[in-house]
Design a protein that fits this description.
With 231 residues, this protein is α/β, with parallel strands linked by helices. The chain is built from 9 helices and 7 strands; from the N terminus they run H-H-H-E-H-E-H-E-E-H-E-H-H-E-H-E. It has a single domain, classed as Rossmann fold. It is globular.
Length: 231
């Protein structure tokens, strides 16, 4: 496992909770993102034998799903403790590094997936440029992150002590992220919104899942955004 460059305390926050991250994360949210990425946006893509980068892998949930679908996965995160947790979950190539300065050459991967990572960097636009850079021409890039129009809900939840996170929160807008992908040389293949409102508690799960059917048409209004693009 290679060594990451120094990072700020806020960038490293999620590494400090690596041992408990799976326990405190919202399972419904994670599973919906997994479903949208693999069962919807990448549904028509046969991952068998493809080189896939999980950029900002966290505890390895997306890496695990990709491996189950036959991809040769590289799991990258800035946190060594998170990478150790990911390594216990699945057998991928572990790399400790910063998504805004990826330690890979141009066009290294066939698929790059980055879920809920770029908003936790000091420069999410640069992170987008980097994940596109390391994707080969004709490859696929999938990015999910929160939508800036709902940033106030995060601020409020933090003030009320309802959210156990204190990392960087640089949320891009829905059209802003699309623009960044295009300026990096990508073509849109599909977008979707996830969660029509921010109260992702058990009682609201059926309603949220039902409303997600509107995510393709009304994505800019949703709390989370998912974009698929190709170079």
């Amino acid at each position: 496992m290679s060594v990451a460059a120094p990072a700020s305390d806020k960038q490293r926050f999620y590494d400090t909770i690596a041992d408990s991250f799976d326990d405190i994360m919202n399972e419904y949210d994670v599973n919906r993102r997994l479903e949208v990425v693999f069962n919807e946006l990448l549904a028509s893509c046969d991952l068998r034998g493809l080189r896939l980068l999980d950029a900002g892998c966290g505890t390895g949930r997306f890496s695990e799903w990709a491996i189950q679908r036959g991809a040769a996965v590289t799991s990258l995160d800035i946190g060594p403790a998170l990478l150790r947790t990911a390594g216990k979950r699945c057998r991928s190539q572990l790399t400790c590094g910063d998504v805004t300065r990826l330690p890979f050459g141009d066009a290294t991967f066939d698929i790059v997936v980055s879920s809920e990572c770029i908003e936790h960097t000091p420069d999410p636009r640069r992170a987008v440029m980097e994940v596109v850079r390391v994707c080969r021409p004709g490859g696929r890039v999938v990015i999910t992150c929160p939508n800036r129009v709902w940033r106030w809900s995060c601020t409020l939840a933090n003030l009320l002590g309802l959210r156990p996170y204190s990392g960087l929160e640089n949320w891009p807008g829905y059209y802003q992220l699309r623009c960044w992908l295009r300026s990096a040389g990508c073509r849109d293949l599909g977008s979707a919104g996830i969660h029509f409102f921010p109260f992702v508690v058990k009682a609201t799960h059926p309603l949220l899942r039902s409303l997600d059917r509107l995510g393709r048409s009304f994505g800019p209004l949703f709390v989370n955004q998912a974009h698929l693009a190709t170079k």
